[in-house]
Amino acid sequence: MVRVTTHTGIVEGYMQNGIATFLAVPYAAPISTANRFAAPRPPTPWAGIRQCIRPGAVCPQIPTYGPVGRNATSSLAAGEDFLTLNIRTPALSGRAPVLVWLHGGGYAMGSANEPQFQTGAFARSGIVEVCANYRLGALGFLPMGAACPTNRGLLDIISALEWVRDQIALFGGDPERVVLAGRSAGGFAVSTLLAMPAAHGLFARALIQSGATSAVLSPHDGQRTTRRFMEALGQPDPAELEGMDIGRMLHAQRSICEESYEQHDFGRDGSVTMVGIPFQPVIDGTTLPDHPETLARQGRMARVPVMIGTTSAEYMTHSTAHPDLASWAQVIALLDQRVQPMGLSGAEIVGRYRQALPGHDVIGIWRAVGGDLVFQNPTTRLGLLLSKYQPVYKYLFGGIGPDETGAAHGAEVGCVWFNPDLPSGGLPPRFQVRDRSFAARVHAQWVSFIQDKIPFLPRGPWAAYNATARQVAHITPTGTQMRSDPFYERCMLWEPVAPGHDGQASI
């Protein structure tokens, strides 16, 4: 056993393969019925020794969002005391770089306690790794008016970053070398936290995997989600939500999530239709002053080095939700409501993509439009906007196959968290590593960014991404090569944007 005296009490962890491990370390007070929608509060100090040798509770959740969401849903025990950190460190002394990891799950599912984040891969590589849990769904992202802070899930993460700033040195970490990283909704969160003034100065670099800036709502669209959620609950008084049974709230949450994901309606949901998830960060003028792309254009994002990228076939798994998709009319109908926030119609965007990608069939075009709308284009736009003010390193993971096949959403996770000392058989199949040398190379590339402002590739420094040198590190099993960004030109298929639309398509 190994112990650390934190500011709130002694925590006891354990040693595993030379790594000191502390699980479920509280960074904020539990989320009870009395403070579900309040700002995070510091944990209450405890007497004696707090055992931190087992995973803690996860945020309450139930599956939603089709096959991708079902894969992301945690099956671990939920509870109130889930604002916790899992910390693994190579040594309790020294000043090692720190990785703070945010899990994905559409802002409604997932946890930091999942098996793929328990490998200790980064601690083995000399990095203090910190995986954070935060409020999800209605608890974290339902706009509640002036009585409750907006963007509570992100405020939780800011609270976790403040804890890291103040206490990670006790675990051998350097608070001035914190890298904030995440994938999918975790990547969306990192992108949004770059725009939140309260987060500035709490991390020195940002690593965004498959999640740029497409998941942010205007105040008006945020209120649409609140209205729909209240209707699903039978129009209770908002004060009733504090003491309401969490199961009832989760079922109402799932009902509007499924509706938004499966039955896109621009008139009902507004810009929610682009990503299909109703619980998103909301521009409130305070915690989030404006859309991240607007702030990036103005140079008002946190000015830290950024590594950002996607997989090569982000929408390949998403397409399994439509196994019977067979006609252009179906594709147009499915996409029409989703692209209206961009000032386009389904027929117009499908026509443009068919002309640009003549070899694609029906499902290939659907994958291309959906993948570009949610992942590829926002990543390209954000990378170019940030590059005017700070170093940006862009990657593409996986080979590019016909009809938008290749590396699916999340395909890089097993490699990023690869620890050669551990068998991968205990991980979910999609995170199991088959090519160990490839996984080791990918992990080393991530480590190089965490350890240094200029990441290295096997053949030298990683070239920065900008408007005059749109070079990406293309990472495949056969090697990592710098190449021209293959998805850049597809951003042009979305021009011009709708009058008054705030830069969601423009570079």
From TrEMBL:
Top EC category: hydrolase
The protein's Enzyme Commission number: 3.1.1.-
InterPro entries: AB_hydrolase_fold (IPR029058), CarbesteraseB (IPR002018), Carboxylesterase_B_AS (IPR019826), Type-B_Carboxylest/Lipase (IPR050309)
One Pfam family recorded for the sequence: COesterase
Carboxylesterase type B domain sequence ranges: 4-494
Keywords, sorted A to Z: Hydrolase
Family: Belongs to the type-B carboxylesterase/lipase family.
Name of this protein: Carboxylic ester hydrolase
Species whose genome carries this gene: Komagataeibacter nataicola
Upper lineage: Bacteria, Pseudomonadati, Pseudomonadota, Alphaproteobacteria, Acetobacterales
